[in-house]
Protein 1
Amino acid sequence: MANLARLGAGTTGAHTAAGLGLSILALACITHFLVANLLFLKARPHVSPVAWANAIGVSVLAISLAALALRPALLATSFAQAMGPSPGRYVLGCAVLGFGSSWLGAVLWNRANARLPAAVAGQCIVFWPVSGLIFAFIVQRRLPGLMEIAGIALVFAGIVWGLRAFAVRPAPPAV
């Protein structure tokens, strides 16, 4: 909620409420995906994290192409209008985001899940809200304030504290 009022200037209360509702639904979907993905990879150590990320990517591509084909029937604007005056830049931007954010992020996350105990991987999900804050600061073109820095520091302290709980401790010496 990093300065939500300033970002939403000029929007109606209903518009903002719908946006918040959709963001909560998106968070629920992402959380479900992260948990299901972790459980899938843990239950199937023979499945390559990269192959799994590729399979998900191909599935998303198929769904995206179907949605693209249905766009004229569902929306008032055509795909060409949505791309704007620079279709090449639009397609390049989609490719960069698709590769750099979606696919590469999924590969790295899956590799981490394959190597980390489930409890530790769960702790790492906390990094997502921090990335959301960083996103908000970039959009607002500002640095975080002292209270925001303190909050982020507390999140990281909680992660460290949680990870220490799962640290392997040496056995006590035999008596």
Note: The chain has two domains: 21-116, 126-168.
Protein 2
Amino acid sequence: MQTFSNKSTDASGKKLLLFLPMRRYVAGGRCKSTARLEGKVVIITGANTGIGKETARDLARRGARVIIACRDTAKAEAAASEIRAETGNQEVIVKKLDLADTKSIREFAERFLAEEKELHILINNAGVMLCPYSKTADGFEMQLGVNHLGHFLLTFLLLERLKQCAPARIVNVSSLAHHGGWIRFHDLQGEKCYNRGLAYCHSKLANVLFTRELARRLQGTKVTANALHPGSVYSDLVRHSFVMTWLWKIFSFFLKTPCEGAQTSIYCAVAEELESVTGQYFSDCQPAYVSPRGRDDETAKKLWSVSCELLGIQWD
């Protein structure tokens, strides 16, 4: 019996040794910056769960005043309370923001600008994925409306404060899925043809194009804009798809944890070497390949113009 036990233990040990390198590979790069953020004000959308919450936790640990901007304020308060208790940083604040409603976005920005005198880092993290066809309060297809248009408007409303507090950073959480997207100007709201997976890809491509054009327009202001792919993360982002939720559970070993997925967001927000880097796309805390559609400046400019028209704003 003792021999059998030893063999069993040896076999388990060998399996563990085989899986550890694989797990380290899945985890990806880590942000190695030790930068402190005392005196800095950060907004993170959708920071009540997943990579947003882990990003908030890290930046709070660095001493930043962190604004958790979320639709579900009860969940956000629970997350903020947890972060305050763990980090000892009491400057973790919840403010209501519904990116599916431009009225809510404007109200959030108005309150923030009245109550906070500074803003140094804006992390556009919130998103929806694979949801059935639905529309925002303003009639936009939900994934495009939340993932792109909502953050487009939020950035527009907060940009002057970022410029006043420069050097400042804008971080847009995109995805590797942008490679599968294209901007269908003839059916931007998916009313003629809707596929929930492709709609997500389109919205993530919009994030990349927005970042590219925003960075071009912000040259010389000391406000940078970069986009990123967090990796395939085990989170509730896939909650709208039963199949994806099931697959995520089965293959969870091969997915990043929310903490691992947050590393590139943190890197883009704090890394000293990125102080003057703008208009780039990162994955695993290093520059990553952007699809040809994501490098199309004419499409980026047209998307900018169409986005302004849809939102009823002038952003020159």
Note: The domain at 39-311 is CATH 3.40.50.720 (Rossmann fold).
Protein 3
Amino acid sequence: MFLFAPNAHGDLIFADSFDYLKGDLAGNGPPPGSPPGQVVWQTFNLAPQVASFGLEFGGILSLGKSAALLGLPSTNGDKAVAALGPVTANDGTVWVAFLIRKALAPRSPGGYAVVSLGNNVTPSVGIGMLFQKDRYGLDNNTGAQGARVRTAVAPSRETVWLVTKLDFENGKEFLWVNPSPALEPEIVDAYENSMTAAFMAAGFSEIVLVIGYTEATFQFDELRVGTTFADVVNPEVADRLTPR
């Protein structure tokens, strides 16, 4: 299992390449050398799986496997949760990145498939396919008007790299789809959303893979959280990053 050296780039908070034996995701992790606070995956609904193959994106190392979540047409589907070292406003800026792909398309669009920062009982931010929008985006999960920002990119069998920057100092969330791993992306190129006061105050201590209200299957891979952009890309690329 490949992991970053946290002191080389920033503070690595969470990293998983899902390079486990094919089968149930529950009980796997954390990988050897994981950051303090990262713990084993637990199933909170149905049976999230470790798929036999990983996702690929230029410049992002893949170790051969991925997490696969199956949805249900009229209710919540697979859900897996792992704890991580608590992220708070004191961290200032936190980056989250992962690969995602719709592995099996449903007969009709709809539903959701996200990486959620925080669980159902706490303030959270969902990143992935937005509920009933059939587009990738960010969701503050409040149900209020303006809580979501969606991109122009619809989920498909093509793997995409979603990169999110949480700016606790300014109360902003930024999302990029397929930025270059070789250069920290520009804010002007991001989809922007306002962070809720509740999320700013609470932060998050769990990372959640969850899908629902769709018959689709989604894969997630190379899930990383850190305090710098370099933490969520490969060290080979991070070593050549152009500083800002």
Note: Confidence is low (pLDDT under 50) at residues 1-9, 235-244.
